[in-house]
Design brief:
Blueprint (H helix, E strand, L loop, with lengths): L1 H8 L10 H27 L3 H16 L1 H14 L7 H17 L7 H23 L13 H12 L2
Helix pairs in contact: 1-2, 2-3, 2-4, 5-6
Amino acid sequence: MNWYLAVLKNYAGFKGRAHRTEFWMFTLVNSLIMLVLGIGIVIGIVQRQRWGEWLLILLSLYSFAVLIPSYAVTVRRLHDTGRNGWLVLIIFICAIGSSVFSFLSIGHSGYQAPGIFFNLANIACGIYFFVVACFDSQPGSNQYGPNPKEIASEKISDSSI
C-alpha cells in the first residue's frame, strides 16, 4: 500500500525514474480498487439497486482522479528503462481514437475500419508497454536521473552502519 500512496503523493511527477515495484504495486492496487467497484456496479445494477449507480459515479471519479498519477508513473517507468516518456502519448492517442471511432461506428458502417485499426493499435500498444514495464532498470544513472534501485540499496547500507 505504501507504493500506491507514494505514487499518489508524487501526483504529477513526470521527472525521474520509477522502478518495477513502484509501477506494478500501484497498478495492482489501482486494478483491485477498480475491480471491486466494477463488481459492485454489476451487482447493484443487476439487482436494480440505486447504490449501483452511485458506485458507477464513484468509479468514474476515482478513474479521473488517478489518471494523471497513472500516466506519471508510466512515464517514470519508461524513463527507468531508458525510454522517452513521450511514448505514453501513443497509448493516449490509441485510446482516444478507439473510443471515438467505436462511438461513431454505432449505426454507421463507414467508421468501422478506423475503429478496428485503433482497437488493434491499442492492443499492440498495451502489449508493448506491458513488456517494457517488465524490463529491469537501466543500470546506473541515465538522462532521467539516478537508478532508484541503487538509491534504495545505498539507503539500506547507510542505515546499517
